[in-house]
């Protein structure tokens, strides 16, 4: 169903990946990168890593080229002062039942937490940003973002 395309995807081991899962890219141009899933669309996962400089920390990869991972909590391989944290552990369990999948769209997920989008580094658009309209009667036109309020973006046509 169309709803399934946006809420979850299958990783390399056919485990279900949902938003907020920790995922590592195993193949492709983004190989070795790891991050938190922020969006899923048609089997493509959009990962966010705050330490990544390029593309504001976002990486896109096919879900089938990724592997869902879970950082081991309190898992140490030794007891001495030189002991390193344990390796990454693969998550065999489905996502927590305490956080059910929300039917909200990705850009609506944090609307209730903030009144304005200004100053938020996670926002999809920025005031002054130039965009190209992709669908509708104005397809192909260039426009400039003039205002952002929750999930509404106000633009001014340039062309």
TrEMBL record:
<feature type="compositionally biased region" description="Basic and acidic residues">
    <location>
        <begin position="108"/>
        <end position="119"/>
    </location>
</feature>
<feature type="domain" description="KOW">
    <location>
        <begin position="16"/>
        <end position="43"/>
    </location>
</feature>
<feature type="domain" description="KOW">
    <location>
        <begin position="124"/>
        <end position="151"/>
    </location>
</feature>
<dbReference type="Pfam" id="PF23291">
    <property type="entry name" value="KOW4_SPT5"/>
</dbReference>
<dbReference type="GO" id="GO:0006357">
    <property type="term" value="P:regulation of transcription by RNA polymerase II"/>
</dbReference>
<keyword id="KW-0648">Protein biosynthesis</keyword>
<dbReference type="GO" id="GO:0006368">
    <property type="term" value="P:transcription elongation by RNA polymerase II"/>
</dbReference>
<dbReference type="InterPro" id="IPR039659">
    <property type="entry name" value="SPT5"/>
</dbReference>
<keyword id="KW-0251">Elongation factor</keyword>
<feature type="compositionally biased region" description="Low complexity">
    <location>
        <begin position="94"/>
        <end position="106"/>
    </location>
</feature>
<dbReference type="GO" id="GO:0003746">
    <property type="term" value="F:translation elongation factor activity"/>
</dbReference>
<protein>
    <submittedName>
        <fullName>Putative transcription elongation factor Spt5-like protein</fullName>
    </submittedName>
</protein>
<dbReference type="GO" id="GO:0032044">
    <property type="term" value="C:DSIF complex"/>
</dbReference>
<dbReference type="GO" id="GO:0003729">
    <property type="term" value="F:mRNA binding"/>
</dbReference>
<dbReference type="InterPro" id="IPR005824">
    <property type="entry name" value="KOW"/>
</dbReference>
<dbReference type="InterPro" id="IPR014722">
    <property type="entry name" value="Rib_uL2_dom2"/>
</dbReference>
<dbReference type="InterPro" id="IPR041977">
    <property type="entry name" value="KOW_Spt5_4"/>
</dbReference>
<dbReference type="GO" id="GO:0032784">
    <property type="term" value="P:regulation of DNA-templated transcription elongation"/>
</dbReference>
<feature type="region of interest" description="Disordered">
    <location>
        <begin position="76"/>
        <end position="119"/>
    </location>
</feature>
